[in-house]
Amino acid sequence: MGDVSSKQYIDVRLGSNLYGIDIKYIDNIIVMHNITRVPKSQPYFLGVINLRGEIIPIMSLRRKLGLEDDEFTESTRIMIIKPEPSAAPVGLIVDEVNEVITLEEENIEKFNYTDETKADYSEGIGKHGDDLINILNILELIYEKNE
């Protein structure tokens, strides 16, 4: 055994696609809450929820990634993400949370893009059994750079 480095991800589904979120960013996973809309916010921000007295902004991961709008079902979950220990949490809506998976670094294909074709929100594609899992770059996703 070499010094193979591996990471744990939560495997989530959006539509028919699988995405991986690094487990170190996940603070909590909750069922759908009533979302209070916030006027004039970005289209992918659906509003805020009150979670045990804390106001948490909720982002539609589908809208952020340019997919079709959310369809809320009994499987829909809000993943509470803490991008950094001192940062305010953000909720991401996903269609379904599957399981915690461990991916070895050698099973993740990194993208080698030029700046123009960069896939901003993806760190690469992980291979888990027969599934391909798009590994999300949480920091890029949450901290939108306004250029």
UniProtKB/TrEMBL annotation:
Database matches in Pfam families: CheW
GO cellular component, one term: cytosol
Biological process according to GO: chemotaxis; signal transduction
Domain of life of the organism encoding this protein: Bacteria
SMART domains named among the record's database cross-references: CheW (SM00260)
InterPro entries: CheW, CheW-like_dom_sf, CheW-lke_dom
Residue intervals of the CheW-like domain: 6-147
Protein name: CheW-like domain-containing protein
Taxonomic source organism: Herbinix luporum
Record lineage: Bacteria, Bacillati, Bacillota, Clostridia, Lachnospirales
